[in-house]
């Protein structure tokens, strides 16, 4: 029997994972990518001998990273060697940069940190863990790993009963406040909603499961950096017999008679039995789906009206020294007025005293920098392009650069950081928009508000045409590398369900 062909558009994390799963399932898979390398935002920047992960850097839920290799009968350790980090990260606060808090998922070390705040807050933290773990198991078993192709998949007595257990109406910060009173500790346990591009002050409380996952299961490091995951997935896909074409821009997903027939490249139709789209959903709906009937409710007007995550300004700095005085790979620096900081981001303000994150991958893998040197990756959450009241020009870049470096120099181990810079590269929201088709430059896609989550978020199976599927951060279940890997799993299982009648639920 002739193999059916699937064209996967976009070699981001979800595109690569989908391609592997489909090739393993017996399809002839062709992966088309407009850039010259795999990974999407899990890209790499190389300059002057320094190597930086472009986007995601924090490895959580390693079993989901490993699953795509195990599925194909491979040993994940042969592809993505990992080690657990302890402490997970260091935290500093802007009004007191001389004080460092180290967060560990070792219970003894963690309790010492918590009890330094107060016994009451330590007890509150344990109560928070117990409650959010209950909600996490409900979300994991009934929502995060399930598709909602029909309204009845959500609006039924069983699912609604489970949904009520999630208690999603309060914000992450207000939920944490029920258990913890110290403002700094609250911030250290709620800021992780920024991993998916939303503020802890208005993001649904369910997303406090992100820090819970860190505390219970740890933070990990992949030797070679996060980009190693992208190249290893590409390697596995090729080993399975898949085909990748880089520097290939898809101009249109061709739909005829209510079915996806393939894609248009350089004006020519390239036919396939199915299309799996890993392009950011809002961009794809607005620019790749030309037929209005196939757009359904996702008209151009609707796409513009939807709510989007924040964006990021990232500095990639090659340094002329090793930062031996800095202990941890991951370091977070918070404005003490974090709520005002977050409000400013989502109201489009140029931030006077932003919070930021410093990642030093070369501390764990010296091959990421020239011998005897380190590279600093510094990320600042900023407004996306649809809300920003300012332009991303050289003046804005220098404003944030100088602001952050002036702050960083006040932290022990980073003194004289400006004088140590020998190489500089940046990514702005405009770059994320132009290079990766991130709609409005929103790095994390659609914001996971209550009205843009679960059944109300774009689903894997196209609702208004056949043989077309979507995967990635703007689709269900959402953003963040582990969740995006789940989106690929869901999308492939939806395709298998339609093509072969395979019920959802297998690996």
TrEMBL record:
The keyword Oxidoreductase applies. The keyword Metal-binding does not apply. One of its GO terms (biological process) is carotenoid biosynthetic process. InterPro entries: Amino_oxidase, Carotenoid/retinoid_OxRdtase, FAD/NAD-bd_sf. Residues 13-496 form the Amine oxidase domain. It comes from the Bacteria. GO terms for molecular function: oxidoreductase activity. This is Dehydrosqualene desaturase.
């Amino acid at each position: 029997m002739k193999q059916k062909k699937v064209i996967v558009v976009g070699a981001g994390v979800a595109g690569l994972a989908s391609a592997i799963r489909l090739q393993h399932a017996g399809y002839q898979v062709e992966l088309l990518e407009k850039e010259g390398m795999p990974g999407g935002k899990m890209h790499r920047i190389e300059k002057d001998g320094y190597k930086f992960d472009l986007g995601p850097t924090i490895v959580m839920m390693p079993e989901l990273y490993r699953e795509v290799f195990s599925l194909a009968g491979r040993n994940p350790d042969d592809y993505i060697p990992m080690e657990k980090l302890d402490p997970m990260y260091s935290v500093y606060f802007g009004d007191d940069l001389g004080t460092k808090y180290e967060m560990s998922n070792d219970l003894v070390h963690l309790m010492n940190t918590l009890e330094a705040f107060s016994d009451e807050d330590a007890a509150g933290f344990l109560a928070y863990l117990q409650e959010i773990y209950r909600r996490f198991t409900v979300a994991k078993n009934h929502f995060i790993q399930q598709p909602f192709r029909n309204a009845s998949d959500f609006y039924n007595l069983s699912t609604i009963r489970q949904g009520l257990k999630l208690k999603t109406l309060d914000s992450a910060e207000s939920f944490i406040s029920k258990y913890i009173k110290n403002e700094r500790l609250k911030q250290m346990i709620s800021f992780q909603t920024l991993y998916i591009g939303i503020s802890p002050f208005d993001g649904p409380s369910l997303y406090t499961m992100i820090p819970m996952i860190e505390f219970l299961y740890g933070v990990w490091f992949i030797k070679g950096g996060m980009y190693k995951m992208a190249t290893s997935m590409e390697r596995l896909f090729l080993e399975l017999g898949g085909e990748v074409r880089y520097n290939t821009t898809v101009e249109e997903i061709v739909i005829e008679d209510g079915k996806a027939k393939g894609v248009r490249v350089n004006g020519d139709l390239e036919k396939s039995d199915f299309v799996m789209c890993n392009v950011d959903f809002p961009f794809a709906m607005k620019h790749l789906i030309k037929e209005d009937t196939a757009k359904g409710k996702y008209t151009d007007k609707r796409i513009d009206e939807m709510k989007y995550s924040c964006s990021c300004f990232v500095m990639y700095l090659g340094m002329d020294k090793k930062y031996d005085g800095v202990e941890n790979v991951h370091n977070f620096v918070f404005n003490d007025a974090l709520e005002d900081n977050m409000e400013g981001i989502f109201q489009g303000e140029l931030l006077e005293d932003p919070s930021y994150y410093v990642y030093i991958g070369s501390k764990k893998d010296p091959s990421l920098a020239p011998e005897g040197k380190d590279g600093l990756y510094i990320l600042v959450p900023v407004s996306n392009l649809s809300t920003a009241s300012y332009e991303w020009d050289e003046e804005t870049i220098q404003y944030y650069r100088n602001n952050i470096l002036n702050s960083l120099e006040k932290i022990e181990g980073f003194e004289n950081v400006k004088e140590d810079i020998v190489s500089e590269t940046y990514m702005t929201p405009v770059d994320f928009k132009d290079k990766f088709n991130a709609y409005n430059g929103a790095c994390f896609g659609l914001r996971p508000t209550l009205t843009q989550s679960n059944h109300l978020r774009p689903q894997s199976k196209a609702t208004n045409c056949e043989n077309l599927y979507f995967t990635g951060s703007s689709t269900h279940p959402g953003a963040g590398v582990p969740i995006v890997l789940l989106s690929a799993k869901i999308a492939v299982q939806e395709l298998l369900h339609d093509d072969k009648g395979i019920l959802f639920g297998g690996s």
